């Protein structure tokens, strides 16, 4: 028996937005994902001109109702104790632009993708995020 996945078309949710130091509205988008089992988020990040230490930070939050949002977490286990910390994906590379692909398992009705830039001296960079959803 094989899984039969239906792939949705490639979509853009953030298109060449100039980043800031916070997760602002211009670089935060939500996607309805009810009924799908996986999302693949393709991220293209370009550092600002002359910047060498800047990093992209991507935050993923999920929601059952589109109102109450929960950040996904990392889990570290030591001595049978789980330590949960909010998960943030950091993209840093000597190359610019840098392209990464982030697969996410989907268990909620909505997902929010948000980006900001840290370590900027003067010139903020840009980010684009594209996605494809898969489901049964």
Mean pLDDT: 89
Strand-residue fraction? over 45%
Q: Which H/E pattern describes the elements?
A: EEEEEEEEEEEE
> Any guess at the CATH architecture?
Sandwich
Sheet having the most strands: 5 strands, antiparallel
Class inferred from helices and paired strands: mainly beta
Number of distinct beta strands: 12
- Domains, number: 1
Radius of gyration based on Cα positions: 16 Å
**Helix content percent band:** under 10%
Name the overall outline: globular
| CATH topology descriptor | Jelly Rolls
- The parts where pLDDT drops under 50 for at least 5 residues are none
How many DSSP H or I helices?
0
Instruction: Give the CATH level 1 class.
Output: Mainly Beta
Name the assembly state. Answer: single chain
Q: What distance separates the N and C termini?
A: 13 Å
Name some characteristics of this structure:
136 residues; mainly beta; Jelly Rolls; five-stranded antiparallel beta sheet; 0% helix; globular
